[in-house]
From TrEMBL:
Residues 289-477 form the Mannitol dehydrogenase C-terminal domain. It comes from Actinomyces viscosus. It is an enzyme of class 1 (oxidoreductase). Its EC number is 1.1.1.17. Gene3D superfamilies: N-(1-d-carboxylethyl)-l-norvaline Dehydrogenase, domain 2 (1.10.1040.10), NAD(P)-binding Rossmann-like Domain (3.40.50.720). Belongs to the mannitol dehydrogenase family. UxuB subfamily. Signal peptide: none annotated. One of its GO terms (biological process) is mannitol metabolic process. This is Mannitol-1-phosphate 5-dehydrogenase. InterPro entries: 6-PGluconate_DH-like_C_sf, 6PGD_dom2, Mannitol_DH, Mannitol_DH/Oxidoreductase, Mannitol_DH_C, Mannitol_DH_CS, Mannitol_DH_N, NAD(P)-bd_dom_sf. One of its GO terms (molecular function) is mannitol-1-phosphate 5-dehydrogenase activity. The gene is mtlK. It catalyses: D-mannitol 1-phosphate + NAD(+) = beta-D-fructose 6-phosphate + NADH + H(+).
Amino acid sequence: MNASLTESQLAPDYDRSAMTTGIVHIGVGGFHRAHQAAYLDRLMRRRSQAATPEGGCLDWGICGVGLLPGDAWMRDALESQDHLYTLLLKHPGGLRDPAVIGSIHDYLFAPDDPETVLALMSAPTTRIVSLTVTEGGYNVDDATGEFRTSSPGAIHDAEHPGEPTTAFGYIVEALRRRREAGTEPFTVMSCDNLPGNGTVARTAVVSQAAMSDPELADWIDANVAFPSCMVDRITPQTTSSDIADLQRRLGIQDAWPVVCEPFTQWVLEDDFPAGRPPWEEVGVQMVDDVVPYELMKLRLLNASHQGLAHWGRLLGIEYAHEAAADPDIAAWVRAYLEREARATLRSVPGIDLDDYVDTLFRRFTNEAIADTLFRLAQDASSRMPKFVLGTVRDNLTAGGPIHLGTAMVAAWALGEEGVDERCEEIVIDDPLADELLPLAAAQRAGHDTAFISHEGVFGDLATDERFRRTFVEELGALRREGARARLRALAGGSRQA
């Protein structure tokens, strides 16, 4: 017999009927539900069980907001089960640690009723607006760091500020209303995998405001906090098998559960003038400077994911754990991290980098997660500049080695031609596919630097002679030798290649 989530023994023990919205979260997907919402649920459970005099933090409930047409699915799934969902932690060997998460107590699909969303964001009780809108969702040019004022969404929201369509249009209008009402501004908390995500969020919000109201933009820049953070938890897409397995094993019917790895980390800049939940009680590292942790994660974990994806897809590998267990790919990733990535990092307080890298491989080889290389390779035009090209640039500036990082770029570029080494299709899912695929076709026709000429992705690297020369060498070697032979040569090559 199937039980509803509200009837499940795993359901939250705190009084969800007493919850009010303290956090509005834009972009509720698998990662938010596996990470920030799970931390808050843990905090609410802890406070409930301890019966602390400070209260149960139930005034920090999350109201999710969806802006895109596809977000209607999340609205329907959550509404059908009182906004509860199951979080499944998948350990190696098949052990599952299920929990029913209750910290999201409401969800608004903005196209249904934009005014209701704006009213909630303008309410004094809303003290944080958080974001997981993907690395490419900030409308900021990777090469220049500037907000794309020519994008259709930005133009619309500047011309019709009271009828926004984008995350930043909603944030700007809500802050305008709060300013007019004399209400303290909320804190804007980006939780996306971006270097300096707080700074990027500030750029997007302030620039959007400046397009229609420069005075408001100045007020936002002076009065609104944009803390940076580093977030980490591998969260693959939920499959129909996950849903069926949950129903079969636990008798729980859940329209959209979330699966993730056991590991989780959140390092957060402690800058919340309007207040925040006491996240430190449940393991969040509240710090003054996130940058060392952020660079560590982006340039070690996220860059490794790109290496697994682009080399693995050339070899016809489907899953991340298979790529991480492949001795040639694993040796290449370790070589890249040791020789090129780690040299660009700052000291990371409290972190042993050797242990961190070893932990990465234990996480990557967790077969229970079954994360696909297709997912890791999605939006590579946004991810590669943030996770890999910064390391290449820093090593170019320092006169350090760039062969391994540039070879990863060559593997990506070759994969964009759409065929792996078994002559099977490599499916490309990238917002810049219409621009990059013709360049990949020109590359295939013999124009070796066509792909890296895209200045929106590569910026000044497109004209750097050392990078261009190394890229052409690596692309040619890949074509001649094949991916596996090239992996072995690179991993075993000179440390100063």
